[in-house]
Amino acid sequence: MNKVFKALSDPTRRHVLELLRTGPMTAGELSDHFEVSKPTMSAHFAVLREADLVDAVKSGRSITYRLKMSVLEDALLSFAGVFGLKIDSNNKEGSSS
Amino acid sequence: MNKVFKALSDPTRRHVLELLRTGPMTAGELSDHFEVSKPTMSAHFAVLREADLVDAVKSGRSITYRLKMSVLEDALLSFAGVFGLKIDSNNKEGSSS
DNA sequence: GATATATTTAGATAATTAGCTAAATATAAA
DNA sequence: TTTATATTTAGCTAATTATCTAAATATATC
């Protein structure tokens, strides 16, 4: 959980997760969205992997990253929960309040 | 919002916020819950103030810190929102799905 | 006014971090 | 089997961070 918050503390890494929300992408595709070098992006991917926020699957010469939504959700949920906030895990747009 | 996530990346600071969830406390009272020195705690308080997650009111020779719940909530809400997660701001325990 | 209490500021250090270029690895294609 | 592509690893640097002790500030009490 600490690793998750550490991972989320960098805006580039948060943006990577946002890019992955709609589906998996390769390291290269992700890198194309940022101004920093590939090795720098690779280091960010490593932090995200270490926090278990993404998984990486190699196919051919590229590596496809996928968001581990449940890990992100659990971290936000358990932290928010301490403050009496609840996270609704419904992906649906139109639910309660 | 970046400052909020930066502030949340440290476990001591997250713990401070948790201590404040039930009500305001002075710098000294908060510090008593941790093993680190007062100046170190003071620096953590400064980061939390800078992120606008707490406010500080001086009365007499102590300083009372109070959690700015709405700021914490807004940050979690807007980030979680990107991923289709919803945070329920009801303090109530027993609400919906 | 002197002393005690609460907190911050100053100044230092060690560890971590985000960034870079260059090189290594692995796979695919020519 | 050479060359091109995708990604990571190695090695470096500058900036930031968490921590400390000592000193400063501000307020209260004696």
What would the keywords be for this entry?
homodimer; 97 residues; Arc Repressor Mutant, subunit A; 5 helices; elongated; disordered C terminus; DNA-binding
Topology-level CATH name of chain A = Arc Repressor Mutant, subunit A
Helices and strands of chain A, in order, run as: HHEHHEEHE
Gyration radius over CA of chain A:
15 Å
* Head-to-tail CA distance between termini of chain A: 27 Å
Strand content of chain A: 15-25%
* Main sheet summary of chain A: 3 strands, antiparallel
Show unreliable segments of chain A.
Answer: 92-97
Give the overall pLDDT of chain A as a whole number: 92
Instruction: Just give the CATH class of chain A.
Output: Mainly Alpha
> Helical element count of chain A?
5
Assembly state = homodimer
Can you tell me about this structure?
The structure is a homodimer of 97-residue chains. The first copy, chain A, is an alpha+beta fold and 97 residues long. Chain A has one domain: Winged helix-like DNA-binding domain superfamily/Winged helix DNA-binding domain (Arc Repressor Mutant, subunit A, Orthogonal Bundle), CATH 1.10.10. Chain A is built from five helices and four strands; from the N terminus they run H-H-E-H-H-E-E-H-E. A three-stranded antiparallel β-sheet of chain A has the order 1-3-2. The C terminus of chain A is likely disordered. Chains A and B meet through helix 1, helix 2, helix 5 and strand 4 of A and helix 1, helix 2, helix 5 and strand 4 of B. Strand 4 of chain A pairs antiparallel with strand 4 of chain B, so a sheet runs across the interface. The first copy, chain A, binds a DNA duplex (30 and 30 nucleotides) through helix 3 and helix 4.
